[in-house]
Amino acid sequence: MKTQIFIAALFFSGLAAAQQSKDTLKVKNIEAVNIKKQVFKKQSDRFIYDVASSPIAKGTNTFNLLKQTPMISSIDGKSLKIMGKSDVVVYINNKKTNMDAEALIEMLKGTPSEDIQKIEVITTPGSEFQVESNEGVINIVMKKKKNDGYNGTLKMNNEQAYYNNPSAGVSFNFRKNKWSVNSNFNTGSWTDRERYTLSNGDSTFRNESLGYNDDPNKNLGGSVNIDYEINKNHSLGFTYNMRYNKSFNSILDVTNWQNGTLVNRTINNENAQTRNHSFNLNYEIKTDSIGSKITSNISYLWFNRDKMSINESFPLNNDPKNEYSALQQSVPQIINNYAANIDYLKKTSKGSTWLMGLSYNHTNTDNDTRQDDIVDNVIINDVNQTNHFIYKERILGAYLTYERKLSEKFSGKVGARYEMTRSSGEILDKTSFDRNYNNLLPYLNLNYAINSDHNLSYSFSSRIRRPRFWELNPSRTYFTPNNYTQNNPFVLASKFYNQEISYMYKNAFFANLSFNYVEDASNQIPLQGTVTKPEKDANGNPVMVTTKFLRYIRTNYGNNKQLGLTLGMNKSWFKEIWTTNYSVNLGYSIYKGTVSEDPTSVPVPGQTEVVNPYVIDFKNFNISGNINNTIRLSSNKDWFLGLNYYYGSKVKIESGTLGVRQSFDVSLKKIMGNWTFVAEVYDLFNQNFNSIQGVQPNGSYNNVVNFEYPRILNIGVTYNFGNQKLKKAREMKSANDAIKSRT
Questions:
Q1: Is residue 58 part of a domain?
Q2: What CA–CA distances, in Å, run from 532 to 207, 546, 604?
Q3: CB 411 within 8 A of CB 12
Q4: How many structural domains is the chain composed of?
Q5: Which domain holds residue 531?
Q6: Residue 364 domain-assigned?
Q7: 629: domain CATH number?
Q8: How does pLDDT run across 176-235, given as a tens digit for each residue?
Q9: Residue 714: inside a domain, yes or no?
Q10: H or E element: which one contains 21?
Q11: What DSSP character marks residue 491?
């Protein structure tokens, strides 16, 4: 996804601060006269959804509110997307949230929608945002009240999928004079069930595997945020986040056929637990009365995941070559990150805004993987797959952004981010590498408010995507002894160039045309091939045995380009009885690249390995859409019906053609004072699952069906207590936020 793009920078002037003040006054006037038309508009580099006057904003939680926000969708109840494709980074009051993905979703589900003033959707984030690749930003702006007191939320959920999965959470907020504290705690247990149908081969060989995976989990998570207002210009804050996940006795049970003959049964038993602790100290100085300020952070992150597994294959025929085999793995990962940053926001009396900052991240990872073969109850170390991998990474970043209005109709924002990365990796006693690179990442946004009904804007940004730390750990995860995923410590960072043209009509209808180009694109690539090595036959005589394999290797493969068009609307009808949020996404993609060798393969004396080249060369058109409806069933505004539908057409991706996906969701909500009761059914017809078919030019194929039992019945009860007008403590951006997304 990459070509060269040339842009010209422009010079801007205007009155941004005055316009912001005017917008605030406008919101207050709307609330004062109780106009019920919800506000959805384009302003500068973002879309703004004013939920304070929205008919669906009461009696729900922030996660459900986000799903009803234009351009945002969720088809699984566990993640959010912008325009159906871009991953999401969530900010609260312009501060990046300081927690991992699962904890963030639980926090959003536990935050009452009444606390929200507006939601800002930034499809192409500026240089000041710590994002990667083509990630978009959701900035949640909380209502600002300064009453002393306390409030909180109690929440209980029970999900019935293949298994029953209960969860509960509590949040508590306290404000007294100069002190503010907010905290949350959640716990739950759930078991994921997945059914697999795997097949691969060519015209001469066919391998099929059928089975399931049961993955039980117990989870504890929480955070504490303390803010002390030293005086009107100085504030000190401290944040602690933790998360613990335990997954013991996770079973993968797969039965294998070769050329139609039953061969063996593979059972993988895994125990894993993950611990995540992060600390952040924040200091903020307001330097004038019009919003200028300096913020600084120092942070520490400790991440530890321990995984132990035993993989056994039991013969199911009388072939003497098909014997019992077993291996065991220990795959620990420890990450230590130390980070600091300082940011300066300067506003001028003429409405210009300068943003500038410096950041530093120092990360050490320790991955001491051990793999053993079990032969006649004797443990024999596999030296080729036993690796102690040490990885160190230092990132120094600096950014500068300038925003200004040239006239009442024309405004713009220009900036750049510079990142210097120094990294080194070593597989002890085997190999090592150094990888140093510098990136200058420009950004430009132009916004033209044609009149009150029409708004047009253009954005350009460039970003990089560094490999996640677990992707670098050179370990394997086995389906069968010859079918497994393989991580790769030699993956290079990818560079993204993103462009968008956005148009909005009457604060209700919008169009977004985007073009994204990626260089050194990477993904998990299915490589097929053979290994020939010496063994002994039944009589003890040496023979050469050839075995076929399928490895999913994380590696760079080439470039890709994506052209997208999103058309949507957000509007209320019949005196706000019916609220709609519709969008359709059209995409055209060009992928090109080749992987002709396994970058993780290490030559073994006496063995010969042959890899079939994997070719990625296609052009593809796809379509997806979301239809969200909220219908008020009573004049008292205490009964609501939700009807949502998602459709995704066939789409080609690096590993093959992903089949049609669709989901029909139904929800019923009842509000009783401070109580909210919700019943929801996700994917009523069990149609949202992954089916991938991949065929190579040489005739080899690889097909995967992964059915996760997506139909879920969820019953939720929420109780809000205390002073609901209480202002929360400041949400603070952590210096190591960019690192957390890579754990």
A1: yes
A2: 18, 4, 11
A3: yes
A4: 1
A5: 16-599+611-740
A6: yes
A7: 2.40.170.20
A8: 999 999 888 889 999 999 999 999 999 999 999 999 999 999 999 888 989 999 999 999
A9: yes
A10: helix 16-33
A11: P
